[in-house]
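User: New here, any thoughts?
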Amino acid sequence: MIKTGVLLVNLGTPDSPSVKDVRAYLAPFLMDRFVLDVPGWLRALLVYGIILPTRPKRSAHAYQSIWTEEGSPLMVHTMAFGKALSEMNPQYPMVVAMRYGNPGIEVGISELLAQGCDRLVVVPLYPQYAMSTVTTVTVMIREIVDRLKGDLPVHVMPPFYHQGVYQDALTASIQPYMGGVDYLLFSYHGIPVRHLKKTDPTHSHCQKVMNCCESPSPAHATCYRHQCIKTTQAVVSRLGLLDTQYGVSFQSRLGRDPWLEPYTEPTVKHLAQLGVKRLGVVCPAFVSDCLETLEEIGEEVREVFIQNGGESFTLIPCLNAQVGWVGAFSSLLNGYMGELPN
C-alpha cells in the first residue's frame, strides 16, 4: 500500500524581526530567479548592491510592529492550520515547510521520508497561480527530491481559486464584517506585468488580447490576474454586492517596472476622497496573515485611508486556521488524493 506524505508549503518568514535575520531571509527570496527574473549577474547586483544594504532595516521595523509572543504571524497561522489539517487527516503524514527560511523544504521532505513515505503530495498554500509562488516551489521540490530520492513520485496540488469549497470558505470569513463596511476592496499581492507574459503558454493572449482575462484561453490556467478576477467574482456573487460596492487592487509593488494595476494605496486614497467612510479590505492572495496583510494593509494603508477622510477601516483576517477553512481544505485535499493513481 502506498504511503503518501503531504508537504504544506507557504512563503516563509524571518526567524526573528532583527535586521540580521531579516537580511538572511530576504537574500534567498530576492535571489530567486522566479521572483526577480533578470539575468543572474544583474539580480546579484540589484540584491547585494542596492536592496540588501538598506531594505532589511526598514523591513525589520515593519516585522517588529506585527511580531507576537508566539512569533511571526505567518508561521503561527500556518503551523496552526497544518496541525488542524493533520488532525483531521491522520491517514497522511503531514509536514509544514517554508519556501524561504525555516523550517525548510529539504527538512520537510527528509522528515516525510524518515516516516516511510513512498509518495509525496506537495501543497503550495496559494489560491492563485504565479511563477513567483507555485513555480518556484515546484522547481525546488524537484531539485531536492532528485538529490534525496530520485525515484520518489511527486504530485503538486494545483491552485484552488476556482474550487467552490474554497470560495464558500472565503465568503464565510468575510460575511461577518460586511455590516460594518460600505465598500469592500479585494487587495491581491502584485506581480510584474512581464510575469503574466512569461507564463502565458500561448505567448499571444495575456496583455495582448482586449479583455484578455475575460476571453477564454488556455492561458488562464497560469494567469494570475485572471484567477484573481475569478476569485473576486465568485465571492462578490455570493455576497450579493453591486458593482459600486467593491473593487480590486494590487499591493506590494517592488521596483520601477510595470506591475499589475490599480495599486492598492492610491486606490484607497481615491476611495476616501470620493467619500467612502467605512472601508473593508480583504487579501485573498494569502491564506495566512503576514507582513503584507497586517503591516502593509493593516497599518500603512489604514493610515492613508484615515488621513484622506475615511472614518472606519476594517482589515478582514485571512483564512488562517478557521475551522470552516480547515474542513474545506480537507475536502480539497482528499478530492485530489482520490485522483492520484493507486
User: Anything to note?
Assistant: Strands lie at 4-13, 94-101, 119-124, 154-156, 183-189, 246-251, 278-282, 312-315.
